[in-house]
Amino acid sequence: MGEILGLGMTHYPPLTGHDRDMANILRTVMRDPGLPERYRDPAGWPDAMRREYAADGGTAAAAGHRESLLRHFRHARKLLDDFRPDVVVIWGDDQHENFTEDVIPPFCVLAYDHVEARHRARDAAHNVWGESADTVFRIPGHREAGKFLARRLLEQDVDVSYAYKPLHHEGLAHAFLNTIMYLDYDRVGFPYPVVAFQVNCYGRRVIAQRGGRGRLDHPLADAELDPPSPSPRRCMEVGAATARAMRESPWRTALIASSSWSHAFLTDKNHQLYPDIESDRRMYEALRRGDYETWRGTPLAAIEASGQQEMLNWYALAGAMEELGRKADECEFIESWIFNSNKCFAVFKP
Question: Distance between CA 58 and CA 265 in Å, rounded?
């Protein structure tokens, strides 16, 4: 019987860059012609947001945000090292990277033997490690575990896709690559074989907006959007089936959900300026209590309205931990008004 460690974290892209640039997504929104004029000046923002941005454009706040995130990543890495997993299964989203117009699977197990990946459009001047765009990350895969997982999911009536090599994007989509880079932020190496488990989190925006931000001055009509993501309930069911499969496997498995929570650039009701902090807090409190029914009962429409699309990765983790009868042993919510997203870290010990 395989032991299972559960971890929740983020793959927040601006963490690869410098503190002075961490609020650049907000600055991009501020240049959108569709933003109401009263929000172009910080004087029109909520007080907490204005204080965080301060007079330095959020640079000092970014240093504190980075420190909080790195504290959790280093702790998670220590837990991984102590656990010594045979395989690390990461639930992450694909933002029009490996899956594009020719196929968008709701779920796909990437059962690669190994993968070579590079920074996502970064050069040495724009990432905190000073690594060039030619820097190659050689990541071990675990085809046998990936095949086993896909087979066991199919046997449990989960119609999951699988792949043995990338389709379009050489390497791994940034949700997976960033997770590995941040768990190895101190560049000591990452020796654990990885099975990336893609979830179509972006759903209705994955082709229409290429998995990114939509323009406020040109909102898309429903007819222009794509078919939806899998529902939160279904993601929890898939997570539970994954936990059953890996519990019955011969491998010590770390199950990781990687995403920030609500994203400002997906939260149109806030004019894309700041995330849905109230909704995130509510979901965090439910997670902290082990109230999985609140998670299961959240409709996809609420997820989309709150910019929480990427949290579907976390719904898979929640379903897995509920199946194993676990509540979070450690859990922390990291709030931000100006850095595009709130983050959460969670640990579910064996």
Answer: 17
Domain boundaries of the chain, sorted by first residue: 4-348
pTM of the model: 0.97
Q: What is the pLDDT of residue 259?
A: 98
DSSP 34: T
> Could you tell me which CATH number the domain at 4-348 has?
3.40.830.10
Closest CA to 92 of 220, 191, 200: 200
Q: Please write the tens of the pLDDT for every residue from 103-115.
A: 999 999 999 999 9
The mean pLDDT value of the chain amounts to 96
CA atoms within 13 A on the CB side of 349: 7
For the chain, how big is the Rg over CA atoms in Å? 19
The structure tokens listed for 69 are 């995130």
Backbone angles phi and psi of 330, in degrees to 5: -140, 140
Distance from C-alpha of 323 to C-alpha of 342, rounded to nearest angstrom? 26
pLDDT of residue 122: 58
**161 vs 196: CA distance, rounded Å:** 12
Give the residue among 343, 127, 142, 176 at the shortest CA–CA distance from 246: 142
